[in-house]
Amino acid sequence: MKQQVTNLLSQKRVQVKLLVVFTILLYFTNLGQWDLWNPDEPRYAEVAREMVVNGDWVLMHYNGNVYPDKPPLFFWLVGLSSFLFRGFTSFSARFPAAFFGTLTVLLTYLLWRSLLGAGTGLISGFILATSFEFAFRSTRANIDSTLTFFTTASLLCFIHWYRSSKQQGGRDEDSLRFALYGFYVSMTLATLTKGPVGFILPLLVSLVFLVIQRDWKALKEMRLLLGMLFMIGLVLLWYAPAVSKGGELYLQDTLFKHSIARYSQGWAKVRPFYFYLYTFPASFLPWAIFLPAAFLHGRFRETLEKREEYLFLFVWFAVIFLFFSVSKGKRALYLLPLFPAAAILVGKVWQDLIFALVVVIRREWV
Predict the structure, then answer these.
(1) DSSP 41-60
(2) How confident is the model at residue 255 (pLDDT cuts 50, 70, 90)?
């Protein structure tokens, strides 16, 4: 009987179903049972409402004024949600965040299988789903859980492309091409979700990883110039009409004020360089206490067969952490795109710990 249960739980489809059921219970239960919270939720819901009421899906408005703060994808999703659930409610406004939070948990599970083999990816999915900041943002009308999904999807496509491209013989060119397109398309959608940071984060992670690896061949095969032109072309399908309608002021606000100036000056959210050193552990509770062990565990295993995989996770974590630490403007939720990497690193520690304990218990009892 025990063996049958173990075999059942080890099946991919069963693990996916367990994660889906768990996240639905965690995120969607009582999702609409309280009012929208200031400051972000009511503003985002109102922008989406005015978009639907006015029929203008290109240029966002807030209280009748042009809203240049964010790109439109998240508001499109809230508008679609309001159509599906017949009205603008707290549930329909929060549904996209909960939906993409659930999908990010599944992507983290797939990343585990891609990087570390068909082990217990359930652990990492559970860790991500229950980490404080991620769970909180996945139950709010918040952009960052959607951004995290697309940046995670982009990095999953990248690592799949990179590992497949290194296979000697038996390379599936169609699969490689699909993964590379997925990398750039996911970055495009991330950019349409929250602006330039959507492509900067996955692009930086992938480039730093390849430079550390000194894999100049892969860097060339990424077709970076063509890929970025492809991405810019897709973004311009929305941005060009928006600038045409919004004028020069909209162009300046979106390109400079709400991107470069927000990053370099920070406005009302100016924090010291070390801000995340003490806020991230609180955001990643209750699992943050295992992060030191996760970093050491990965370091010790670098000499084994998973060195490359651990390096990718470390680069993912470190690049995003440093990128936002350098920024003048800081909020705890900005680090959400590194949570999947942290969850996998901690999940691997827990998996090895659990199986080591099982072995010791069996041996001692025998």
Answers:
(1) HHHHHHHHHHHHHHT-SSS-
(2) confident
